[in-house]
Amino acid sequence: MSSFSWLLLALPLLSGALMPLQAGVNGQLARHIDSVLTASLISFVVGTLALLFITLGQRDMPTSLAPFRGLNWWHWSGGLLGVLFVVSAAFAGPRIGALLFMALVLAGQMCAAVVLDHYGWAGFPQSSVTVGKVAGLVLIGAGVWLIRRG
């Protein structure tokens, strides 16, 4: 397996492993400043500044507005979807715990992923729903229930 293939596997694994840490950090920030929304804003401002510096350092900024002309309304929605995750993490994570929070996030991600793949939406390759995929979702749901039972 090439080093690029390993990166394709390692990067999502690392990102997933850091999600509960991000939820915890944002939850503690929200508790410290007594505002979930302000904590979420701080998280996005810091992330935006980091991306700005990296993008400028890579000299990867478009030189004209031409690439933006063909965008649809939904191309702009990624940031809004990120807001939902960060706000829900800062709000719910500290109240229900990292494990249950991430189990619910995983269950939501997997349910949405099955639909996105089945219809080939948002640029994903089309891959029909199968009995095995549904069984996997049922097992994830059972895992959430077991974690919740505690």
Task: Give an overview of the whole structure.
Helices cover 76% and strands 0% of the residues. It has helices at residues 3-33, 36-58, 78-96, 98-119, 131-149. Helix 1 (3-33) runs antiparallel to helix 2. The protein has 150 residues and is an all-alpha fold.
Write a compact overview of the structure shown.
The chain is mainly alpha-helical and 150 residues long. 76% of the residues lie in helices and 0% in strands. It folds into two domains: 1-64 and 78-95, no CATH class; 97-150, no CATH class.
SSE inventory with pairings:
Layout: H1 3-33, H2 36-58, H3 78-96, H4 98-119, H5 131-149
Helix pairs in contact: 1-2, 1-3, 1-4, 2-3, 3-4, 4-5
List keywords for this structure.
150 residues; mainly alpha; globular
Largest sheet: none
**Strand count:** 0
From N to C, what is the helix and strand string?
HHHHH
So what's the overall shape?
Answer: globular
Distinct helical segment count: 5
- Low-pLDDT segments: none
- In total, the number of domains comes to 2
Beta-strand residue percentage: under 5%
